[in-house]
Design brief:
Family: Belongs to the tetraspanin (TM4SF) family.
Order of helices and strands: HHEEHHHHHH
Strand order of the largest sheet: 1-2
Structural class: mainly alpha
Subcellular location: Basolateral cell membrane; Membrane
Number of helices: 8
Largest sheet: 2 strands, antiparallel
Number of domains: 1
Keywords: Adaptive immunity, Cell membrane, Disulfide bond, Immunity, Lipid-binding, Membrane, Transmembrane, Transmembrane helix
Mean pLDDT: 76
Protein name: Tetraspanin
Radius of gyration: 25 Å
Strand content: under 5%
Low-confidence stretches: none
Helix content: over 70%
GO cellular component, one term: basolateral plasma membrane
CATH superfamily: Tetraspanin
CATH architecture: Orthogonal Bundle
């Protein structure tokens, strides 16, 4: 015997929420893949300075997001099917998966919050090392100059956040993208530390919004799945 009344309404509400959850998983997976292959981040984070690789903390977070998006799509499908079939077993499995996924999201959020400044800091340190090598004679024997030029061209910046960085565009045209005039060079170039901060804070802002929306949806789904499960159990008694 199928559920009736308010429980039947909850069944279809849960189905709609799970469909939205499935779509949200697809969006997170899409955003994560976009961040993974975005030209700004890949140009910078694939760089190598001698035998030192650029910091990969950012990519660790991206791979976590890819996994979360894929799992969300699977769990969303499980919830949709369980709600339509009125299966206590599937709904119980769905609830368990949601609890685990919610715990993982909270853990990932804490990890991201703790490391949000460290990601940009590591990249800025990597840039500063490359910049120092590019200014020295040893830059001929390593790829410091190539690394610095990649930063400058990708982020449209020039120089670190210090006095040397301010005058670099004026005396090292081989390191900085060329402007039409000296005045444009002075006015339009930002230091690369500022641009790196903007790059990663912008990416993390998008991730944070997506995570909050998904967390709210998951809480509603956990409540609705338990209510529907109880309704199915009660209806089977009569």
């Amino acid at each position: 015997m199928g559920v009736e009344g308010c429980t039947k309404c909850i069944k279809y509400v849960l189905f709609v929420f799970n469909f939205i959850f499935w779509l949200a998983g697809g969006i997170i997976l899409g955003v994560a893949l976009w961040l993974r292959h975005d030209s700004q981040t890949t140009n910078i984070l694939y760089l190598q300075l001698g035998d030192k690789q650029a910091p990969n903390t950012f990519y660790v977070g991206i791979y976590i997001l890819i996994a979360v998006g894929a799992v969300m799509m699977f769990v969303g499908f499980l919830g949709c099917y369980g709600a339509i079939q009125e299966s206590q077993c599937l709904l119980g499995t769905f609830f368990t998966c949601l609890v685990i996924l919610f715990a993982c999201e909270v853990a990932a959020g804490i990890w991201g919050f703790v490391n949000k400044d460290q990601i940009a800091k590591d990249v800025k340190q990597f840039y500063d090392q490359a910049f120092q090598q590019a200014l020295m004679a040893e830059s001929e024997t390593n790829n410091g100059k190539a690394v610095v030029k990649t930063f400058h061209e990708t982020l449209d910046c020039c120089g670190p956040d210090n006095a040397i960085g301010v005058i670099t565009p004026l005396w090292r045209e081989d390191l900085c993208p060329k402007k039409d005039s000296v005045m444009k060079t002075i006015l339009e170039f930002s230091n690369c530390h500022k641009k790196i901060d903007e790059l990663f804070s912008g990416k993390l802002y998008l991730i944070g919004i997506a995570a909050i929306v998904v967390a709210v949806i998951m809480i509603f789904e956990m409540i609705l799945s338990m209510v529907l499960c109880c309704g199915i159990r009660n209806s089977s008694v009569y």
